[in-house]
User: Which sequence fits this backbone?
């Protein structure tokens, strides 16, 4: 046997072993995909992938080969992602509004392979997951300009779903009209109330009257159907393309860092701890009607080393002048200190509910 034949035989044997390992790796990838589907998680995690590549290249001791191995690993990860995307096709995602709504845009970015299903309002989208009509729901929980989305917060308090992801979507509001519309022809603008609030200064400066719609995309569709140059919509660029509208003006929201956070809701609660990112958990509680009750609850969180990023109150609908509290805090609630904190809170609160956790700074 020549040296060439021996080398080729070695390659053939290595390839045989690698083929078996490849099948084993893809089986593990399919299990990851199933887990991500059940828990409402994205396929692609940029931070984790970057860290894995940096760590795995150090397994190669020959410096000459490291760059080639990096390319090999990247290719393998890309194949794995494509396979996982294929496995997740058909995942049913509920959102509020119609095509072109910001919730629709967010859901499409988070789950590009999912089957998106439109619902007329937040509650019906949330209920669709509780009833099993959909696997997941993507709903807004907070806007950087307009604040919390109270209806969704109330659903989180009353309902049985959990949050396993929170993603930030930059929001750009635009002035849209039918062909022939100009600044001077517009007398009235139509949009969701939050969008009108976000563009209040712009609207006032132009002297436009306002009409509230159930959704920004619904407003764009109504303007297209009305075909009146005196009426314009405030909505996303995507809706202009969808409904054949012209963009009269771009980025008319007062705050150019306008961002909405969307939560992914599922029936399963998973403690998601990503060591490459800050983990944050969400919980809600009510306190007894006695002196210092809220302070004691807050102290239980801080004294156990958890930094609260968000604390706000919402009225209980069935008890006048009674409130529940919404908290987002950094850390692992399943750690020893987390268990100690939850035990103390359960002793100090009338009701305590952990909604789940997510990795901070997930942008789409």
Assistant:
């Amino acid at each position: 046997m020549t040296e060439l034949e021996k080398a080729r035989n070695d390659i053939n044997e290595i390839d045989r072993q690698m083929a078996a390992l490849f099948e084993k790796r893809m089986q593990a990838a399919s299990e990851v995909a199933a887990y991500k589907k059940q828990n409402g998680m994205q396929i692609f995690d940029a931070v984790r992938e970057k860290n894995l590549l940096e760590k795995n290249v150090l397994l190669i001791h020959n410096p000459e080969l490291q760059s080639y191995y990096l390319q090999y690993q990247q290719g393998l990860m890309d194949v794995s992602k494509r396979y996982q995307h294929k496995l997740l096709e058909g995942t049913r995602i509920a959102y509020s509004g119609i095509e072109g709504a910001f919730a629709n845009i967010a859901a499409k970015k988070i789950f590009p392979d999912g089957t998106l299903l439109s619902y007329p309002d937040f509650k019906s989208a949330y209920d669709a997951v509780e009833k099993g009509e959909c696997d997941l729901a993507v709903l807004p929980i907070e806007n950087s300009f307009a604040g919390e989305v109270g209806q969704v917060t109330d659903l989180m308090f009353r309902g049985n779903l959990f949050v396993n992801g929170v993603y930030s979507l930059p929001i750009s509001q635009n002035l849209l009209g039918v062909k022939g519309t100009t600044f001077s022809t517009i007398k009235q603008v139509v949009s969701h109330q939050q969008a009108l609030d976000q563009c209040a200064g712009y609207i006032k400066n132009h002297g436009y009257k306002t009409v509230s719609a159930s959704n920004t995309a619904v407003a764009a569709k109504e303007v297209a159907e009305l075909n009146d140059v005196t009426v314009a919509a405030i909505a996303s660029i995507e809706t202009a393309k969808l409904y054949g509208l012209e963009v009269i003006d771009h980025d008319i929201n007062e705050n150019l860092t306008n961002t909405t956070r969307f939560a992914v809701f599922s029936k399963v609660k998973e403690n998601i701890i990503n060591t490459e990112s800050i983990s944050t958990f969400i919980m809600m509680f009510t306190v007894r009607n006695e002196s210092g009750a809220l302070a004691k609850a807050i102290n239980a969180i801080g004294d156990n080393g958890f930094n609260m990023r968000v604390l706000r109150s919402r009225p209980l609908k069935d008890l006048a002048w009674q409130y529940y509290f919404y908290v987002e805090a950094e850390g692992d609630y399943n750690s020893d200190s987390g268990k100690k904190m939850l035990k103390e809170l359960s002793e100090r609160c009338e009701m305590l509910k952990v909604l789940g956790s997510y990795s901070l700074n997930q942008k789409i």
User: Anything to note?
Assistant: The longest strand covers residues 349-359. The mean pLDDT is 90. The chain has twelve helices and 15 strands.
